[in-house]
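For the sake of transparency, this paper describes our internal protein records without simplification. The remainder of this section carries one protein's record, kept here as part of the documentation:
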Amino acid sequence: MPYGLIPSRDALLIEKQDENGENPYVNVVVARTADKDNEVYKKVVEAYQTQLVAEFLLVNYHETFFPAFPYDESATFAVTEDNVSEISGYKSSKEGKTVVKIGVCGGVNNNEQWIATQKVLDDEGANIYIELVEFDAYNLPNEALNSGDIDLNAFQHKAYLAKDCGANGYDLTVIGDTLIAPAVASTPKVRFHRRDQGRGRREVSKGHPFNRYGLQKGRTGFSCLSLIKRGIPMIQIGHMNKVFHLKSGDVTALDNVTLNIEDGMIYGVIGYSGAGKSTLVRCLNLLETPDDGTLSVGDSGVITLRGGKAYDAQGRKLTERKLGAMRRGIGMIFQHFNLLDRSTVFENIAYPLRYTGMKKADMEARVFELLDLVDLRDKADVYPPSFPAGRSSASPSPARWRTSRGCCSPTRRPAPSIRTRRRPF
């Protein structure tokens, strides 16, 4: 999972150690088989598999890594954002201690949990010093361990270990589980790519029922999965269908689509031309009315769709006036930006605000707030035609789409200003 995303907030699922401990993608500590009962090595593993190290993994790496050993999830953590740097900056003396050389990959920044392990060893008076030996290629640590150049190896998961030992005849054994990184589920179907502040993406399939956490039941292909329970999604689509009845025949644009999107997330819908991408986006704010299904956006409540009509939670048909009020709470960027060439950037953004009755001073403040959001304050008096071609999609349209302070903002195409933004909306 890309660094910066937090599984308990952002993940559709995480992969965790299963009950019998045979998950092949759990990262492990490995020793030579002849040394598997070495008491010093056992103490190192015991020190790693403690509550302090579990908390450090979660806090220091923002849940990018997850403990693959038992710990108290309900406990009040001693490790917090305020003191985690004290642990990562901990210094231990090597003098008079038994040195254990542990091979790692990925640099020190991805292995600071061993500093926390060293602190545990020192607090227990174990008289053991951990010396990390960094390798810049994944085929080297097992070779070094097998030849006796290092004492333990802690860079790999069980599946890689089994493959490497089988290919090279290494006699190595797992002596403890360490961590696991969240898994990503994907299928060859049309995929929803989930982004957070432009950093990384998550993939899930389209077209089949998902449960409320976004994980498709019974179709994951993984054997060891644990769902992450999150809050109520910003957008909830349930079993949505849309069929266009044309002279040439019926065209199914949406077929039983179910999807949850969390607050603050950015998704992209990817698929072939005619796959239903635009239809799905237009159905989010009912510019296109689905044939049936359910839809919930923000705090609008669940809207039930039957026979191309929309009904509220009490079963009352929604009037065009009510639908219009709901649409005003959802920002929208269309495929063509429809900017007014004879109006400045400022005037283009202010245009929809004039029809909301907003006071002039408030409108001006809102426009500049949005210009700052897309780094275009210096272009307030520029006319759209004068924008360079490469910046045309970074013009006022992304800012205009936020004028209503909508709870979410579908877009027909990814504008560069969205991809490169530096902070969440």
User: Anything to note?
Assistant: Residues 14-19, 184-231, 413-425 have pLDDT under 50 and may be disordered.
